[in-house]
Amino acid sequence: MVFGLIPARGGSKGVKxxxxxxxxxxxxxSYTIEAALSSGVLEEVFxxxxxxxxxxxxxxxxxxxxxxxxxxAEDATPxxxxxxxxxxxxxxxxxxxxxxxxxxxxxxGDIRRAVEIFxxxxxxxxxxxxxxxxxxxxxxxxxxxxKLKPIFKAEYLKMRRQDxxxxxxxxxxxxxxxxxxxxxxxxxxxxxxxxxxxxPERSIDIDTLLDxxxxxTILRETTE
Length: 224
What we know:
It is a single chain. The chain is α/β, with parallel strands linked by helices. Helix content is 29%, strand content 23%. It is built from six helices and eleven strands. The strands form three sheets. It has a seven-stranded mixed β-sheet with strand order 5-4-1-6-10-7-11, sandwiched between helices. Strands 2-3 form a two-stranded antiparallel sheet. Helix 2 (52-60) links the parallel strand 4 and strand 5.
């Protein structure tokens, strides 16, 4: 039984009450709940929250709610700990599909394809959605004693972008893990983690008001 888990705590730093902040006049979390429920591959969809208003909004939108304690709703609380708590509370055997509400442009098709790829990949412990690294990480620099120093080998700075190895970065939209992987290894990253690629235009991760404006623009353009 594959089930969806949307972690949505009440607190946030960059945008106040971020998970229910309006995005094109809809609560941010509504996009993820809608995509999860319409994906057709999740037996149940739960929202894990410490917040009564988020719980109420989520139930109105058709999701079940798992109330979690305050110690699991802090800034530094790892997502995997929220997943472990959900597994214990529901008694479900997984796999668990974690869908961050801050990825409103992730579609039901993304969820469906990710679950299908995970289920059809022999030996996979987990799946993590990724997108293109915006700039070659091999060009990364640090400032040391007032001077620029390369983090990687200096020779990379002389190479053209197209000659460098393609790099990807997790976009936070989809995490899938077997129950035993989540509970025993306490991570979604193992030697047997497989990727699910998403293009940059569907990989916006809402952290600031600017991110919200960008997402609203993309949504308007895709619905016109």
